[in-house]
């Protein structure tokens, strides 16, 4: 039996768009209808449901509790429709040679260049779209069928337990300086003094497992990060500041493993402890893997294995540098 809401799919789309943009004017422009028509559409949906869906104020609109509940189900329905579209396209063969992959900065810079190059050389006429972003944001896109796979840091909070995940490699975070830096000769440094330095550069860690681990260590030492640090997702910016301006870098072991291996960078040692983090490959459960995607995933695994091998050779040098 069809739901009575099935006749109001357009109204549901109108409601979701209004909530997304926060006001009737912007939503009507996006939807290509007039503001009065959009208002009537929302009012009709509220009439059918017998509940108010929007709070209206001079600053715009927001969802009521009933509206939030509806929005959760609208997003779930949209995800299922995207899956249905993907199935139809797969049957027709429309997407067999197109891959859309999301990745964090480490994977984008150190795994995917090799994997994409090898895949394109072998398979030729196929389209690979790469989207860089924060892992938790990319995983929402993966769940919504906007991406085929995601490479990113492990997520311990269980929000994405319905996805298939495969560990590609382990990643550590170090404090590093160039070999000639005054701190390079220090045997043991104080964590509180290190993180409060003005010349500290680090990745943008918003809502990541690394940020949570760093915050736990800050709490343990009763200190805070300095207000004048530099945060960046750019490998080039971090490298310039470390080598040209004597910054201390808080960075992934993968970002600078060649520099540490060569002795150009010194890994600092002190009274802090940070865990390892897994770089993972995420996919949706139950999806059929095309030959093109299967080949690409195997090249990703191969590129990650190469990094693991390099890290194994670098580890003794890191231990010596930190001792």
Structure notes:
The chain has helices spanning 9-21, 24-31, 35-49, 65-92, 105-110, 112-123, 135-143, 191-195, 209-221, 235-245, 257-262, 291-321, and strands at residues 54-57, 60-63, 98-103, 127-132, 149-153, 163-171, 173-178, 200-202, 230-231, 248-252, 265-267, 277-284. With 323 residues, the protein is of the alpha/beta class. The protein has three domains: 1-85, Winged helix-like DNA-binding domain superfamily/Winged helix DNA-binding domain (Arc Repressor Mutant, subunit A); 91-168 and 278-313, D-Maltodextrin-Binding Protein, domain 2, CATH 3.40.190; 171-277, D-Maltodextrin-Binding Protein, domain 2 (3-Layer(aba) Sandwich). A five-stranded mixed β-sheet has the order 4-3-5-12-6, with helices on both faces. It has a five-stranded mixed β-sheet with strand order 9-8-10-7-11. The protein has a two-stranded antiparallel ribbon with strand order 1-2. Helix 1 packs across helix 2 and helix 1 crosses helix 3. The longest helix is centred in the last third of the chain and has 31 residues, at 291-321. The model has no long low-confidence stretch (mean pLDDT 86).
Quick summary:
The chain is an alpha/beta fold and 323 residues long.
Which properties best describe this structure?
single chain; 323 residues; alpha/beta; Arc Repressor Mutant, subunit A; D-Maltodextrin-Binding Protein, domain 2; 5-stranded mixed β-sheet; 12 helices; 19% strand
Blueprint of the fold:
Blueprint: H1 9-21, H2 24-31, H3 35-49, E1 54-57, E2 60-63, H4 65-92, E3 98-103, H5 105-110, H6 112-123, E4 127-132, H7 135-143, E5 149-153, E6 163-171, E7 173-178, H8 191-195, E8 200-202, H9 209-221, E9 230-231, H10 235-245, E10 248-252, H11 257-262, E11 265-267, E12 277-284, H12 291-321
Parallel strand pairs: 3-4, 3-5, 8-9, 8-10
Antiparallel strand pairs: 1-2, 5-12, 6-12, 7-10, 7-11
Helix pairs in contact: 1-2, 1-3, 6-12
């Amino acid at each position: 039996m069809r739901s009575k809401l099935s006749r109001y799919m357009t109204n549901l789309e109108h409601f979701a768009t209004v909530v997304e943009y926060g006001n009737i004017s912007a939503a009507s422009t996006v939807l290509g209808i007039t503001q009065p028509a959009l208002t009537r559409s929302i009012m009709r949906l509220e009439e059918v449901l017998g509940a108010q869906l929007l709070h209206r104020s001079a600053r715009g609109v927001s969802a009521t509790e009933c509206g939030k509940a509806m929005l959760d189900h609208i997003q779930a329905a949209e995800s299922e429709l995207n899956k249905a579209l993907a199935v139809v396209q797969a049957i027709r063969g429309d997407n067999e040679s197109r891959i859309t992959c999301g990745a964090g900065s480490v994977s984008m810079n150190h795994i995917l260049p090799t994997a994409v190059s090898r895949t394109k050389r072998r398979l030729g006429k196929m389209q690979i779209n790469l989207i860089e972003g924060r892992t938790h944001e990319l995983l929402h896109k993966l769940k919504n069928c906007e991406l085929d796979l995601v490479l990113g840091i492990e997520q311990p909070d269980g929000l994405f337990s319905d996805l298939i995940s495969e560990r590609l490699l382990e990643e550590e975070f170090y404090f590093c300086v160039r070999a000639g830096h005054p701190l390079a000769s220090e045997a043991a440094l104080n964590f509180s003094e290190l993180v409060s330095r003005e010349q500290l550069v680090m990745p943008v860690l918003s809502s990541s497992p690394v940020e949570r681990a760093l915050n736990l260590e800050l709490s343990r030492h009763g200190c805070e990060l300095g207000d004048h640090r530099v945060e960046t997702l750019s490998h080039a910016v971090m490298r310039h500041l470390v080598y040209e301006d004597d910054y201390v870098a808080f960075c992934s072991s993968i970002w600078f493993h060649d520099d540490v291996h060569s002795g150009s960078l010194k890994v600092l040692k002190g009274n802090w402890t940070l865990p390892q983090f897994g770089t993972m490959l995420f996919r949706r459960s139950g999806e059929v893997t095309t030959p093109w995607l299967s080949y690409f995933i195997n090249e990703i695994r191969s590129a990650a294995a190469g990094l693991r091998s390099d890290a194994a050779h670098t580890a003794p040098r890191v231990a010596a540098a930190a001792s």
